[in-house]
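Help needed: design a sequence for this.
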């Protein structure tokens, strides 16, 4: 999995802190709304691999998530070959506290790349956002059954720039792996540069990579579906 990991703490204290923050602490630092009810990671779909904001990266997990989203979009493109714009649909209804941050993250990516666009939907989507408490922090995940989702952790989004967290995790949807050793100017460096990093935009290398992935990768996926269909 790829994620924005939490600083190391004793296991029990991490759980207590995450629960306390999720249930009632003020969230003015990053503008994250206090949740009406504290969810847990268990309420999100089961995950087989994930990529965290601060934790160790699992490149296979990131690839599995990207492939799941890519194949979902490819099926739609193959069924409607006249579509001119490649659109990835997301559903944020399960992350109401982060509605603004998710919208900002989508706008950032839509203004940064040209070969794929993100669009909100209230119905069936290529991936979804969830929110809650998880001592592992925020992450992008796949359940191993053709779908992916992003989980946004309450406590971590108060500690780090919340829009950067959302934009970083959305970068996994578009095919980018974590690079924690990178500078703040790299969006996919995640929590590596520390809590003071507030850059929310992908750099030129990251933008170019996403554009390349969605031209070549989507074409291959559609061709593969056409042969098997």
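Sure. Designed sequence:
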């Amino acid at each position: 999995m790829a994620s924005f990991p939490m600083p190391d703490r004793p296991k029990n204290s991490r759980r207590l802190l995450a629960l306390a923050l999720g249930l009632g602490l003020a969230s003015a630092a990053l503008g994250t709304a206090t949740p009406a009810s504290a969810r847990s990671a268990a309420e999100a779909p089961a995950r087989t691999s994930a990529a965290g904001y601060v934790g160790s990266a699992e490149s296979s997990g990131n690839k599995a998530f990207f492939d799941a989203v890519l194949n979902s979009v490819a099926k739609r493109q193959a069924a409607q070959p006249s579509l001119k714009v490649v659109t990835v649909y997301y559903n944020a209804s399960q992350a109401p506290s982060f509605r603004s941050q998710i919208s900002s993250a989508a706008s950032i990516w839509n203004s940064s790349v040209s070969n794929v666009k993100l669009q909100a939907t209230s119905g069936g989507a290529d991936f979804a956002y969830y929110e809650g408490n998880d001592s592992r922090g925020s992450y992008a995940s796949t359940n191993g059954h053709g779908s992916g989702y992003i989980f946004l952790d309450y406590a971590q989004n108060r500690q780090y720039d919340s829009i950067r967290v959302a934009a970083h995790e959305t970068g996994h949807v578009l095919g980018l792996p974590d690079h924690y050793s990178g500078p703040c100017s790299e969006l996919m460096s995640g929590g590596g540069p520390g809590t003071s990093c507030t850059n929310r935009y992908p750099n030129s290398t990251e933008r170019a990579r996403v554009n390349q992935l969605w031209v070549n990768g989507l074409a291959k996926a559609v061709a593969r579906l056409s042969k098997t269909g």
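The helical segments are 11-23, 59-79, 99-112, 154-159, 162-173, 204-228.
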